[in-house]
Specification:
Blueprint: H1 3-16, E1 21-26, E2 36-42, H2 45-61, E3 68-70, E4 77-81, E5 85-91, H3 92-98, H4 100-103, E6 109-113
Parallel strand pairs: 2-5
Antiparallel strand pairs: 1-2, 1-6, 3-4, 4-5
């Protein structure tokens, strides 16, 4: 499956789980190990797992299988490695702590699901 199709299908599946936010980073030309990051923020461990399950199911129906999965049991940060696209599903406080968007600040980004401004104060910081 091509990287851009994989990214689109994963983002659509993530959006079905009603995440706080979904952002893609285009790492082509900046990174040797993947083309895209998909970064998803969720409110709870259960929601993190549910979104990961939705993504794996959707991509699996197109015969894509992750090369590696990390963090599923703890569900603070689940990583699904599809080689061309690495998907990070975070509990929102963990996402803010690691701030991958800042670490990869040179990467073009696309906000696919915007954070709810009404919830920003709940986390104590703007996203």
């Amino acid at each position: 499956m091509k990287a851009d199709l994989l990214l689109r299908l994963a983002a659509e599946a993530a959006a079905e789980g009603k995440p706080d936010s979904v952002v893609s980073l285009d790492l082509r030309g900046l990174c040797s190990f993947t083309d895209y990051f998909l970064i998803v923020g969720a409110e709870s461990h259960k929601q993190v797992q549910a979104i990961a399950d939705k993504i794996a199911e959707r991509l699996g129906s197109g015969s894509a299988r992750p090369l590696h999965v990390e963090g599923y049991a703890e569900a603070r940060w689940i990583l699904l490695d599809y080689n061309e696209c690495i998907i990070h599903i975070f509990e929102e406080t963990t996402r803010q702590y690691y701030d991958l968007e800042r670490l990869w600040g040179d990467a073009p980004r696309c906000v696919l699901v915007a954070p709810d401004p009404g919830r920003a104060s709940r986390w104590g910081a703007d996203r």
